[in-house]
């Protein structure tokens, strides 16, 4: 029940090497689009499922002489195959293989073929090709493309080789590359320019790189020196400066410092503290249960500037008779922070154990897998854990102090809206809306002018032959794609919110048209209007 013990090379970031490597990657067209073109969409999907042979077979009919350097790079760094030295040198003419060996990205390995064993000695070129050293990748290096509020961008990201290339379980010092959690958190980052950002637990550095697009300075911390080496290499490879990489656990490297924004995909995975259970640095913070997430969330207040925000991912446990979101709510009761927690998924103990054991490279059906599942289930049973929630946490520190204005804990199983640049802009709007609502009591809200957001539509359903709708639903096209059931009064109210009339004037007109008492109608519509403003379906004009 142990992780892989293969030796991980030290990654060194020499500017001359990263500049030359970037030149070679650019010349080869080593982009997301370029790599996908080597083998097509179906093979790319198979590769995502862990099947690299589909990509190899598809590429055979597509790779031309001009595309050979790109295929060599993709074969080494994406598929994890070794390549003959001459082919690698051809694909890397500027940086050279020797420089990548010194940087820790590849190693040389003697050929499998002994020239003395070859029967046909008549072709010197063929003999030289078969007996030359092989270049073996020691890291994963692949292109990455994204879109955010600053526009489209693309980088190259180095991380450690995955299970597909290794053919074995991951090393405990494994540095993770781009995954679903990566893109989720990068999409949650608020796209508002700020001075300083903290990336807590930077891993391969991807969140720090995203944060730098909207920040003057970024501090990136990690308890893994290897992660910091790789993150530094990635920033340098992509020409990104202004990131200060620091070694240490959680907030220790930034003691006494404050930031305008904190982002973190912390090592939140709940792992049994049992002998023989691997402890992966990229996902395991070394604490019992969800204590690490609690420690991070309750520590934010001391490190945020007034008005500062934080966006994080996390797990939280459900205990016998105790709701998981209620536990998270109790953590924030010790702070004055605004908090918005969105649970996207909940897993039972067995499913959670299987997910993370498989993530570490241990395959179902093996004795190690069964033993690890037993360790996880024993731990959950002993601590009365009935499930584990996963989701997003958004936090803001008040600009002027005082109690929190936003405490929202909800379950949103799917994001249905159209969010090509992620949810960061939605997060910013919700935080701004919460601040605006806190400053407007019912009297001030009634005097305000509201406008229906441009992505809001209305669905109506009728019984056959009826002129009046049976069901009316307000539908948000972006953001979280919220659907709000509306009665006739609320639908008419939202329809009238074009910024010209005040809320009170609209309610008064509706009361006159429907014959309903104006105060009774206001008591129904004002709370609904608050919810719609917070959700972004209505905006202050």
Textual characterization of the structure:
The model has no long low-confidence stretch (mean pLDDT 90). Strand 7, helix 11 and strand 8 form a beta-alpha-beta unit. This protein has helices at residues 15-27, 32-48, 53-60, 68-77, 85-91, 97-103, 124-131, 163-166, 180-188, 206-212, 225-237, 291-299, 324-332, 349-359, 367-382, 424-438, 442-447, 488-496, 503-514, 518-535, and strands spanning 83-84, 106-109, 134-137, 139-148, 151-160, 194-200, 215-222, 243-247, 259-264, 304-319, 338-347, 385-396, 407-411, 449-452, 456-461, 471-476, 483-486, 498-502, 538-540. The protein is built from 20 helices and 19 strands. The longest helix is centred in the C-terminal third of the chain and has 18 residues, at 518-535. The protein has 541 residues and is an alpha/beta fold.
Number of strands: 19
In one word, what is the shape?
Answer: globular
Q: Kindly report the average pLDDT value.
A: 90
List the uncertain runs: none
Number of helices: 20
The major pleated sheet works out as: 8 strands, mixed
Percent of residues in helices: 25-40%
Strand content: 15-25%
Structural class, from secondary structure content?
Answer: alpha/beta
- N- to C-terminal distance: 60 Å
| Rg (C-alpha, Å) | 27 Å
Task: Give the spatial strand order of the biggest sheet.
Answer: 8-7-6-9-10-12-11-13
């Amino acid at each position: 029940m142990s992780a892989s013990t293969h030796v991980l090379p030290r990654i060194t970031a020499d500017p001359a090497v990263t500049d030359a490597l970037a030149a070679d990657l650019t010349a080869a067209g080593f982009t997301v689009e370029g790599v996908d073109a080597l083998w097509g969409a179906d093979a790319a999907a198979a590769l995502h499922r862990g099947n690299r042979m589909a990509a190899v077979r598809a590429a055979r009919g597509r790779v031309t002489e001009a595309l050979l350097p790109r295929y060599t790079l993709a074969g080494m760094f994406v598929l994890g195959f070794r390549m003959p030295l001459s082919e690698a040198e051809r694909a890397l003419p500027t940086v050279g293989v020797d420089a990548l060996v010194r940087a820790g990205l590849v190693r040389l390995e003697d050929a499998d073929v002994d020239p003395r064993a070859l029967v046909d000695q008549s072709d010197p070129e063929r003999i030289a090709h078969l007996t030359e050293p092989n270049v073996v990748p020691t890291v994963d290096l692949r292109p990455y493309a994204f879109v955010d509020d600053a526009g489209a961008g693309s980088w190259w990201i180095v991380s450690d080789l995955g299970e597909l290339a290794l053919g074995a379980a991951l090393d405990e010092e494994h540095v993770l590359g781009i995954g679903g959690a990566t893109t989720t958190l990068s999409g949650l980052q608020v796209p508002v320019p700020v001075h300083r950002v903290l990336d807590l637990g930077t891993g391969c550095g991807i969140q720090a790189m995203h944060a730098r697009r909207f920040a003057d300075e970024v501090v990136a911390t990690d308890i893994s020196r290897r992660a910091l080496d790789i993150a530094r290499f990635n920033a340098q490879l992509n020409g990104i400066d202004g990131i200060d990489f620091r070694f240490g656990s959680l907030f220790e490297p930034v003691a006494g410092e404050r930031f305008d924004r904190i982002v973190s995909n912390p090592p939140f995975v709940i792992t049994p503290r049992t002998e023989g259970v691997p402890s992966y640095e990229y996902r395991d913070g070394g604490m019992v249960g969800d204590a690490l997430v609690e420690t991070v969330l309750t520590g934010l207040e001391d490190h945020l500037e007034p008005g500062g925000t934080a966006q994080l991912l996390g797990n939280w446990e459900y205990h016998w008779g105790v709701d998981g979101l209620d536990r998270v709510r109790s953590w924030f009761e010790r702070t004055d922070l605004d908090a918005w927690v969105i649970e996207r998924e909940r897993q039972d103990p067995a499913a959670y154990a299987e997910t993370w054991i498989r993530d570490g490279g241990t395959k179902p059906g093996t004795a190690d897998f069964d033993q690890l599942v037993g360790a996880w289930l024993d731990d959950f049973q002993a601590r009365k854990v009935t499930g584990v929630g996963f989701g997003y946490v958004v936090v803001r520190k008040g600009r002027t102090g005082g109690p929190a204005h936003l405490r929202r804990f909800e379950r949103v199983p799917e994001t249905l809206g159209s969010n090509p640049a992620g949810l960061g802009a939605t997060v910013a709007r919700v935080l701004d809306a919460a601040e605006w609502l806190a400053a407007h009591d019912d009297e001030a809200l009634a005097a305000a002018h509201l406008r229906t957001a441009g992505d809001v539509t209305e669905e109506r359903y009728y019984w056959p032959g009826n002129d009046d709708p049976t069901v009316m639903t307000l539908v948000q096209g972006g953001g979280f794609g919220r659907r709000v059931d509306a009665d006739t009064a609320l639908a008419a109210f939202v329809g009238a919110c074009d910024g010209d009339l005040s809320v009170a004037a609209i309610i008064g007109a509706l009361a006159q048209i429907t014959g309903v008492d104006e105060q009774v109608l206001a008591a129904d519509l004002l709370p609904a209007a608050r919810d719609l403003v917070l959700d972004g379906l209505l905006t202050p004009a």
